[in-house]
């Protein structure tokens, strides 16, 4: 995958996370599940806890727990107690989960490569830059808003 499409994928993910943080519904649930599959595939060697997953996704632990319950039922993930700290539950992909994660990654790459080709290199870089500025602005606005509440 070329640099422009990788940048687009990264920036679109950040921008979409802003939507997930403000509006959780059935559609966002599927997007969060896909992101969780990709995160678990990327971090396969160090199984993640529910708290780590919720922080990584930018959603609440109860939301992640609900997603994980659905994913366990569909045999995409397994949960196991941490051998050192039994209070912590670690999550990892099953073989079926690994296959679903690989499909999700392939589909995402294809989508963003196509978008980068459609826009061309210059417009892809411009869009990535503008979206990154948008994400930074939203982060600052959310941070400032939270500071005012404290």
Strand content: 5-15%
Number of helices: 6
Strand arrangement in the largest pleated sheet: 1-3-2
What is the ordering of alpha helices and beta strands?
HHEHHEEHH
The Cα radius of gyration reads 17 Å
Structure description:
The protein has 150 residues and is mainly alpha-helical. The chain contains 6 helices and 3 strands. The protein has a 3-stranded antiparallel beta sheet with strand order 1-3-2. A hairpin with a 7-residue loop joins strand 2 (77-81) and strand 3 (89-93). Helix 1 (3-22) packs parallel to helix 6 (121-149), helix 2 packs across helix 5 and helix 5 (95-119) packs across helix 6. The longest helix is centred in the C-terminal third of the chain and has 29 residues, at 121-149. The protein is flat. The protein starts with a helix and ends with a helix.
Summed up, what is this model?
This protein has 150 residues and is mostly helical.
Secondary-structure blueprint:
Layout: H1 3-22, H2 26-42, E1 48-49, H3 50-57, H4 61-73, E2 77-81, E3 89-93, H5 95-119, H6 121-149
Antiparallel strand pairs: 1-3, 2-3
Helix pairs in contact: 1-5, 1-6, 2-5, 3-4, 5-6
Q: Main attributes?
A:
150 residues, mainly alpha, 3-stranded antiparallel sheet, 6 helices
């Amino acid at each position: 995958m070329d640099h422009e499409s990788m940048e687009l994928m990264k920036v679109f993910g950040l921008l979409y996370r802003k939507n997930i943080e403000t509006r959780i519904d059935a559609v966002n649930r599927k997007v969060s599940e896909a992101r969780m599959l990709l995160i678990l595939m990327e971090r396969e060697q160090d199984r993640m806890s529910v708290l780590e997953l919720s922080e990584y996704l930018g959603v609440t632990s109860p939301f992640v727990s609900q997603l994980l319950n659905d994913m366990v039922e569909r045999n995409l993930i397994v949960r196991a107690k941490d051998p050192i700290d039994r209070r912590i539950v670690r999550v990892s992909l099953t073989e079926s989960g690994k296959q679903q994660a690989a499909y999700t990654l392939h589909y995402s790459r294809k989508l963003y490569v196509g978008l980068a080709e459609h826009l061309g290199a210059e417009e892809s870089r411009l869009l990535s830059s503008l979206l990154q500025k948008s994400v930074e602005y939203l982060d600052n606005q959310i941070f400032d808003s939270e500071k005012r509440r404290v």
